Amino acid sequence: MTPMMPMKTVRLPDWPWQVIRQLAKERRGRVWPVGGGVRDALLGRPAHDWDFAVDGDAMGLARTVADALGGAYFPLDAERDTGRIVLTAADGTQLELDFAALRGADLEADLLARDFTINALALDETGTLIDPTGGKADLEVGCVRATSEWVFRDDPVRLLRAVRMEAELGFEVEPQTAVWIRRDAALLAISSAERVRDELARVMAAPSAALHLQRCDELGLLPHIMPELEALKGVTQSLPHRFDVWHHTLVTVDTLERVIAAVTGQEVGPRVLADAPPAAWGDLVRVLGQFAGDVMAHLAVEVSGGRDRALLLKLAALLHDVGKPSTWSQDEDGRIHFYDHEPKGARMAAARLRALRLGRDEVGRVRAMVRGHLRPAHLARVERVTRRAVYRYFRATGDAGVEVVLLSLADHLATWGPNLQEQRWARRLEVAETLLTHYFERHEETVAPPPLVTGHDLMAELGLAEGPEIGRLLEALREAQAAGEVRTRDAALALAAQLSKST
Predict the structure, then answer these.
(1) C-beta separation of 327 from 277 below 8 A
(2) Helix (H), strand (E) at residue 307
(3) Chain-centre distance of CA 410, in angstroms?
(4) Are strands 30-34 and 49-55 parallel, antiparallel or unpaired?
């Protein structure tokens, strides 16, 4: 649990609070800081988002504050009189300030209608705490308690938010609130997909995501977020797998967090489900630690809506085996197979993420990861990974090839666990090192070599007509270039002429 400062008053930052307070007074209204910003201030956590309850014209006040502070104003909900300001502080950090009209006759009624007691907090002009539901006491013991049994029916996305509060604060949902969540879990299916997506993203981004996914499952929420995951339970697998597909998935998610931490030189958090031998983590640091900065920067790139590549990688780990239940088969000798579960799972993962309103680029990246998660294992079975094989790997996985390397390592460790075989593991690390070396250090040599000739060159020099044949020749030339077989324009044209005659 996050320790809390024992205070009944909170000193608000003069900027922007004093400006907001003065402008509200000039407009003959009242304004109170409420909700998560107050909670985080009491916990001593940095607050970058503040909510304000307004007795009066909330959107009008927000526009006035934005003009006074040079911020950007966005209307959020005209019907509920809610607006947002985005400001940049002197230190360059971005602040979001949300202004909403009181939900009820007065401030107390507004607070009583909020989701959890630890969010039903406000501050008056002097910074004195207003706490009608006992939220401060729940903060002190690390408790997520609903303000009433109707809060989830009023807004079902709060069901998932309860787990998110546990994940981000290290708190625990109190027993009666958990009963209400289980009772109302099915209502989550009628919530806005975008809001469910945003809450799920924050749950997945928190450390020990596998633990929070288990919590979603325990509370009956998971089938209403990703129903495909329910089918993983009880799906048996042959050795070296030790668990059914569902438990293996959870172990993979947890192991992935530790793989990323080891490779990027971050502190590895407490083990939840990952059970690979201690030496494996040291091996990751020794072999792949050379790419720490590159991998960290790569995963930190935002793809859409504040969601970065690291989050999408976690989602791919969660969905990497969703194709297994529908592809399960068993030989006469009892050996279990999942033929083509990767492309089937990729399609299923893409469909689910589209339903959750993730962006096209996000869906494409996760789809590539799920489809390609066994590719590094295939490379590990050949005697030598050639430059041509490296090029084909990244042609298939695209910009998500780095993530596929990390997912494959996590999948391998989750599969073998304490039974990890040293020689197999060493080969997997060797392949991973080769792929990452080419991506980060030899990118223009083998991953994306600049073309030596264009389609116009082929048509002009070889007398070829425009059509699919030009594309096929260009790809063959690029692959030969990546393999080191052609290095000049003349050599490329000569090879193109040879290939053209052979078709």
Answers:
(1) no
(2) strand 307-308
(3) 16
(4) antiparallel
Phi, psi of 330 (to 5 degrees): -140, 130
CB contact set of 86 (below 8 Å; sequence gap of 6+): 71, 72, 74, 94, 95, 96, 97
First to last CA, the chain: 68
> Quick check: helix, strand or coil at residue 462?
helix
How far is residue 279's CA from residue 476's CA, in Å, rounded to a whole number?
A: 42
- What is the DSSP secondary structure assignment for residue 444, as one 8-state letter? I
Query: Which residue in 349, 457, 362, 367 sits closest to 404, CA to CA?
Result: 367
Structure tokens at 332: 């006469």
Long-range contacts of 47-50 (CB under 8 A, 24+ apart): 48/93, 48/94, 48/95, 48/96, 49/95, 49/96, 49/97, 49/98, 50/95, 50/96, 50/97, 50/98
Could you list the pLDDT tens digit for every one of the 503 residues in the chain? 444 444 567 877 778 888 999 999 999 889 999 999 999 999 988 877 899 999 999 999 999 999 999 999 999 999 999 999 999 888 888 899 999 999 999 999 999 999 999 999 999 988 899 999 999 999 999 999 999 999 999 999 999 999 999 999 999 999 999 999 999 999 999 999 999 999 999 999 999 999 999 999 999 999 999 999 999 999 999 999 999 999 999 999 999 999 999 999 998 767 789 999 999 999 999 999 999 999 999 999 999 989 999 999 999 999 999 999 999 999 999 999 999 999 999 999 999 999 999 999 999 999 999 999 999 999 999 999 999 999 999 999 998 999 999 999 999 999 999 999 999 999 999 999 999 999 999 999 999 999 999 999 889 888 888 889 999 999 999 999 999 999 999 998 999 889 888 76
- Least Cα distance to 30 among 92, 106, 141, 103 occurs for 106
| Cα(84)–Cα(66) distance, integer angstroms | 9
